[in-house]
Amino acid sequence: MSARLPLFPLGTVLLPGLVLPLEIFEERYRALVRELLAQPADEARSFGVVAIRRGRETGPALPAIHEVGCTAVLRRVQEHPDGRFSLITVGGQRFRIGTVDQHSAPYLVGEVEFLPDEVGDAEGARESVAPVQRLMRAYAERLAATGTVQISLPDLPDDPVALSYVIAAAAVTDLTERQGLLAAADAATRLRVERALLHREVGLLQKITTIGSSELRRVDPSPN
């Protein structure tokens, strides 16, 4: 299914189910929020979040954007006296951009195709669930042991599609890797990539914590 969708370029990747707070201060996006609020309350009020490939979120120059994004569904809106908006949005449905209209509105509008969330290789997806869950728990524990980053690990679902998005949202990855997970063809592919990614990260974190413990053992605790 295709549709016209307002686009909001950001320096981050939105994933289905992920909560995304936004502060809206540019006039073009204030106009977008006002238009969304003018829609009937029983209609889905959403816009498309797309990660920036090159360029900036603000300013007159249009950034280069990735072609796969995710709808941001409005959950809460607070309007401030100066005209700004504070939004709470939740990631909805993935889409692929066909063409971009730069002229019909103050913001970008995309002709998009909504992407289905398919399992893909069902057997491969099922076989990946338990190893990915174990690796994610080990990853969270190793990350906490470094003392630098704490991640709030939610209950890990057994459904392959839901699990693939939870892992993509919870893992500390760069924009390129997270964009790749968003754009993956199906859950089986996404879980396979996440399994390799988590295995790599757990190994790196294990080396860091092992080296750190060795260095601490070398320190003489005696003040003399």
From TrEMBL:
EC number, as in UniProt: 3.4.21.-
Q: Does the keyword Protease apply?
A: no
Q: Which Pfam families does the entry mention?
A: LON_substr_bdg (PF02190)
Select a single GO molecular function from the record's annotations and give it.
hydrolase activity
* Keywords annotated in UniProt: Hydrolase
Alphabetized InterPro entries for the sequence: Lon_prtase_N, Lon_prtase_N_sf, PUA-like_sf
- What are the residue boundaries of the Lon N-terminal domain, all occurrences included? 2-202
**Name assigned to this protein:** Endopeptidase
Lineage, broadest ranks: Bacteria, Bacillati, Actinomycetota, Actinomycetes, Frankiales
